[in-house]
Amino acid sequence: MRYFAAAEARNNFIAATQNVQSCRVYLGKVQFPYCTEKEMSLMNETLNSAFNDIQTNSTLKKALDVYKATHKKLASLLQWFDKVINDTIIKDLDKANNEIAKKQKQLREERLSLMKKKIKSELGRELKITYDEGDDDDDFENEILALEAEKVDDQDELPGNNLSEILNLSQPDGRQPSPVPVSKLAPIPDKDTLFGDVKQKLDEYDNTRKALEKRNNLQREKQQIELQVIYVTFIVETYIYIYIYIYIYIYRSILIEFWNGNKK
């Protein structure tokens, strides 16, 4: 019975450590202040040691201490994630949503302005547009409203709302780890670490754009040169044909005159 209980616990612990490792891979450059690779490696070693010696209570007691310590670190890691999301990511997301909503409105105004100018120039009429707040067919306005509503929807999906539920799962001795005071949590990473070097990404985009423009210009110049070569070749061949025709005509005239002279 002890063996089967230990095997089930071991499988669950292994799945948990794999989830932490997958999370580390997904987040890339973000360094975990808790549950470091060294700490998770100790967790795996403890799992194997306890499973190989499940009959010795002292070994299991040492393993339990490691499990409890790892559980506290995981709880702190979840708190840290919650802080990073709320203090950095959500704020930047709200700012980006506001900017997108403004740009959508500007694009809509520009679109309507261009439509008016086009109709004025093509049909000679003034286009009058009556904006209806309740017009569900206006795709642009629907997009804007959806973007503005995302801020409210996002608040309901914040990890912090479910954090207490996560911390309450499978607590050692029926107790959850005491939350770490926010002031004592590890510092949150800077934006370059979270989102990457924005300036570098912009420079890479600009370099790619310039490379594409250069390639297009080279192809355009190559096409122009090929067209010029074709044109020059056509002109030269035309002149050659003209010269040959003139030469044949003159030669034929000389032969005819010479032939007529011999007859006389």
UniProtKB/TrEMBL annotation:
Residues 163-183 are annotated as: Disordered. Residues 163-173 have a biased composition (Polar residues). Keywords: Coiled coil, Membrane, Transmembrane, Transmembrane helix. The chain crosses the membrane at residues 229-250. The keyword Coiled coil applies. GO terms for cellular component: cilium. Residues 86-113, 195-228 form a coiled coil. This is Uncharacterized protein. The lineage of its organism: Eukaryota, Metazoa, Ecdysozoa, Nematoda, Chromadorea.
